[in-house]
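Sequence and structure are no longer studied apart. To make this concrete, we show below a single chain and its fold as tokens.
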Amino acid sequence: MIKRLVASLTILNYLGSLLFIFGLAMMVPALVHVFFPGPEISVRIIGAFVVPGTLVSALGMILTRRLPDKVPNIQDGMIITAVAWIVVAVVSTIPLYLLLEHSFIDSFFEATSGITASGLTIFKGLDEMPPAVLFWRSFTQWIGGIGILTFFLAVSFRGGSAAATLFSAEGHKIHSSRPVPGIFNTIKIIWIIYGTMTVVAFVLLFGEGMSLFDAINHTLTLVSTGGFSTHDASIAYFSSFRYGTLIEYTMIFFMIMGGTNFLLHYKISTGNWRALYEDFEMRLFWFIILGSILLVGADIYITHGQKLFTSWSTFHLHFRTTLFQTISVITSTGYATRNLNDPYYPALAKQVFLLLMFVGGCIGSTAGGFKVLRLGILWQTLVSELKQLSLPPKAVIPLVIQGKIISPREVRRICALLFAWISLIWLGTSLTLACTNLDGWQALSGMLSAVSNMGPFFFSTEELAAFPAVVKISYIFGMLAGRLEVLPIFVLCARLTRR
């Protein structure tokens, strides 16, 4: 009983530290509003961020100073992770609920989509929204893209075994391999890479013609592969810009960067360029991208025929659209130059997009999805089983990936995760079909997008906004479970059920 009490108080202590830092982060949009006030500077807008931020920081300080600090075990680490993400999503909801004419569930949905870098949105009229609100949406995606606990550990300068436990429990953002010894050194390198990507992307987008405000926001949601935009038309808004084509190619480059394992970025920064094609996961990543582009492009060509070749500019437009949307989906960014529900995309192209939504990016990236490496391990497991059939029963074929033996325990974990992933998607799809007028493919695309933290779906934003609250809650649960790769959420549910 005493151990459980101490564990619970420890969870609240870590939660308090996170709330203190996140409360300070909530005040940043108020400063943004001073520089980008929109029609006029409003005390109400500033207060919607400063007052809740102050209260959250004060609560966090009280919890941190009054409660015991103890190194959590892996189970408590997962509970801290799950509770932290839920609480941060709720706190992120407050400014949206206070400033916009939306219900709490709608605001909670949007905030969860932001902090999990999912990119699903039920908000319309983005072009007229207060700049502070738009920045808050983008800022939460930038924080959540690399992980709120990773952000917390970097800002608080916490290291040691407790940091290692939380770092591991947060999920898929960092592969178990570390570029350097020491958890804090690893986090520091990750944030240097993430920060460098942010600065370089901003300089390029601003130089290519985006306004200062648009460049800031799209940079934050680009490197985090979140996908929120400041315009209802998403990236199609910039198609008429002088360097609109260059903006799209810049975004394609950084979406691939965000969808790639950060450990690989570190290897490249040390001069090991061969990792781009020698790494098992990257080879499979390139193969999936190339194969998807060919399939989508061929399907569009079969459907639209010679219209694609009336001129070089027409062909280039179709090629660029195919390339952009394929990269946007597989990296879970969700930007759009053309809506995925558009008749322009035939049936096969939409099926390819669904598969890419499920697969997602690389392990240790900011992308969502099941992950390329896990898919590769399952494929190699199938190959090994087929080989085993032609050998004596006692023959042992180890599963080797990139020169390392994959343990049966890891394979079981991947299989369990796959089962949980598919189950969540099926349950959410079934609930959507029961409560809405969507067809099967549309309902599947919505829940798959939520669980895989993707953003795009095969129906309209207006239809999503009109969903019953129970369906929106299932999407919220799916986004959180998918971002944390299910286990922390299930551990929290199991702990609550036992109690």
Notes: The chain is about 70% helix and 0% strand.
